[in-house]
Amino acid sequence: MQYLQSISWRSLALVLIVSSVCFAAMNVIRIPEHVDMFQPRSILRINDFHAREYAIREPIVNLTYTQIDDTEARAIIATNPQNVRVIEFDVDPKPAQLRRRLMALFVDSARILEVNDNGEQTTYGVIIPPSVNVTEQSVIRVVSIPDDKITPPPIEVRAIRVSNAVVFRWSEARSQLHFHGVAGGWWSVTANAYPNHPDNVPYQATILVGDHKLGPLTHTVIGFRKYHYLVPPSAIDKGDIHVLIESDTWGNTQEEPREIGVTVADVRVEPLATPWWQIGLSARLATLIAIALVAAISAFLVGVSGTSVGIVVGIALSSMMFIDRSYLAEWFPQLLFLMVIALITVPLWYRVIDWLTEVTPFKAETRHLIVGTVLLSIWIKGGGILYPIMRPIDIEWHMDKVREILTTWDIAKFYLPGAF
Fold first, then answer.
1. Distance (Å, rounded) from C-alpha 405 to C-alpha 261?
2. At 145, phi and psi to the nearest 5?
3. Less Cβ crowding at N or C end of the chain, within 10 Å?
4. What value does the mean pLDDT take over residues 328-338?
């Protein structure tokens, strides 16, 4: 109870009022959201879709390249970067004496593709990540990578080309796209899709929001087109829009081992005119109020102005919603859980400090500084864990090296630069 004495309840009331105003404003100020399969991060807002693919579109430009040496070739993107979404390159067949050949593709200093050439193909392609800044002077480099950290294997590049493309994913029998924290009211859904199987036989495909059927995805053979639908307020789930695509599937054949439904390039939701008093509240956005209050209480317990911290947290999170609303709102409940756990541990940290400094106690300011630093570290570390971005590594390559070391007992390989 002694810790509660440091809390100013009047200040908490002020934080509650300010965060509630932010919450109300975010419900009234609705903004369009979309899931673009071109964005790698779209994987975080979809369920039951297959991996990204691309369909080449004009213009296709074959670049003039230079073979620098037997391990590298370069080319300059001498075309409008607005039309460059995909890079493809052809190489010579893998030498028979090599078990495999590792290659990488760079755009300027950004490595955007790593290839394990096992001899099955000679043409490779990659979707350029949106984070890579492509200009007319950008340099494409195709290089071979030393497998055992000795000498890179030889590589002969035979073509480098860039092109525009439609990036898409195949749906399954039931696939979902999620738009979190968008709030209620009337909305529209626009799907850029191509409901056609490789056999060109018409089939049934439907788009829904929740349990509300919006309409069919009419079969077509002319390519991607946009389908527009109206979403009533009753279809929205506590401020979240869950788009469901149901379709007949094709596959389980030698030609196509997967079960594929509809090709989807992007789905967009846009708010429609709705009286503000008819806009349903978002349950996810409501956690903003609790987050601001927990931040304020935590600040009071470590001797900092909880009023300032709570208000800053509430306004900052509300402002960030204009950058990437649906993505951030998805993680609000997890962020609240993290902050509550951190808050519960505050008395424990004080007890640990008192126990360790029983002979020579610290000043109150020093105790607050230590616990505040621990609390902030938990927030930063936990936030980094919750932030769902990762850089994949080639686990197969690493495990293969481990097996090789254990088989040959060549322990020196542990100490080669970049071995692990």
1. 45
2. -115, 135
3. N
4. 87
